[in-house]
Amino acid sequence: MTTTPAHEDPHANDAAPYAGGDPYADYRTFGDPTGFDQLVDLADRRLGAGVIAANDEFFAQRENLLIRERAVFDPEHFGHKGKIMDGWETRRRRGTAGSPFPAPQDHDWAIVRLGAPGVIRGVVVDTAHFRGNYPQRVSIQAAAVPGAPGPEELLADDVKWEELVPPSQVRGHAANAFAVTGERRFTHLRVCQHPDGGIARLRVHGEVVPDPEWLDLLGTFDLVSVLNGGVYEDASDRFYSSPTQIILPGTSRKMDDGWENRRRRVHGTNDWVRFRLAAQGEIRAVEIDTAYLKGNSAGWVALSGRDGESGEWFEIIPRTRLQPDTLHRFPLGERAVATHVRLDAFPDGGVARMRLHGVLTGAGRAALRERFGG
Predict the structure, then answer these.
(1) Of 24, 53, 115, 202, whose CB is crowded by the most CB atoms within 10 A?
(2) What is the pLDDT of residues 300-336, one digit of tens each?
(3) Measured distance CA(291)–CA(154) in Å, rounded
(4) CB 322 within 8 A of CB 258
(5) CA–CA dist 8, 139 (Å, integer)
(6) What are the backbone angles phi and psi of residue 152, rounded to the nearest 5°?
(7) pLDDT of residue 372
């Protein structure tokens, strides 16, 4: 009997067949997401992302790629086309009678519109529950196309697609992480499966780069919003949920749709979270919302600002009592010029949303235009 070397075995990356019990018990991670997995997901549906086209979605719909919750698996769930999977799954490609396997160049594709255009730092291709029906390889290209182009425009010959991830092996039933280098701003991705198969979820981590001309037209806007280029930098605690959710657009819809930390027990300490604004700006008014946080909202908060990476912290809002499940508005008597803010929660507790209404300074506008052009 001839044994195929592991590096040549086409099934070396398969997961074991589902054996019952917790379907995530043997879930795996490949690649190192450190350095980008805490960045905002540019393909988050809450930011307006969508899967606008795919060449095939016979077994499972392309829209599943961007569902926020992790993929679920029901071993008894079948439909008239076969096993129903929580992901995007294409039919099996075929060649010809004389050469039944697909040709080397054959692949399936889906086009993703990013909810927030920006610089991509890393991509996670999640093949959860696709144990023997995942793609052999994936590749990812990106393009920058202004406006709201449709599939026909994006597939036109004059659109320049830049390769972010070359055809690369992926593992079944696993989170496959790929770091991305480069500083170019992108608006769309094309995800390719070689030659076919299924992907459960797609995460596109990066930094939002807004259009400065659009912000100029708006005048006053939320300087810390993810959609406008605000960035979560660090926090004392992210036990229950990501602090990035504080600066998402819209209002929270349930308790975990915000930032909640664990219960603090050390006297004389408190929790905090730090953000970088879209660029240097003048903060005119602040909103802090504790929606759906009824018995676990922060008792008091204080807001500080800093101008530049090495600037001194200064007070914007002194320590102030919060009410649970309530929107609080703070008009500022004196405009605060800052590039960073720190929200302190005393002693602990949750905050659903924070908005910093203001305008860019001349220096902030110039810095943002330089980055947008780069």
Answers:
(1) 202
(2) 999 999 999 989 999 999 999 999 999 999 999 998 9
(3) 40
(4) no
(5) 20
(6) -65, -40
(7) 85
